[in-house]
Amino acid sequence: MASGFFEAVERRFIVDGKTADNTEVINFVASIRERSDEAPDILKPDVAERMILHALDKGASIADLDADTVVQHQLILLAALVGEARLNESELNAFMNKIRADADELLE
Question: Which of 25, 46, 52, 73 is the residue whose CA sits 20 to 30 A from 67?
């Protein structure tokens, strides 16, 4: 899942080699939290923003977060990022193949 999260973050927030600014990350997290009544209770904005900024290598630390919090937020953010991308079947297959290869590389 972590591999998918990092790949989805990079696809969403790095365009033509330019990394999005913090405001774009903040606005994205706010939009996710507005999508359902439960989202504000399960997606903490400071955690979600830090996780995205960490994935973008923008100096945000997630060292103080417990594993359950990281996994929960990765799952929600990954679902939102993939949903927003509106990938067709071919694009989704390419995404899955990429993250599987990345995950396999990490395990070697």
Answer: 25
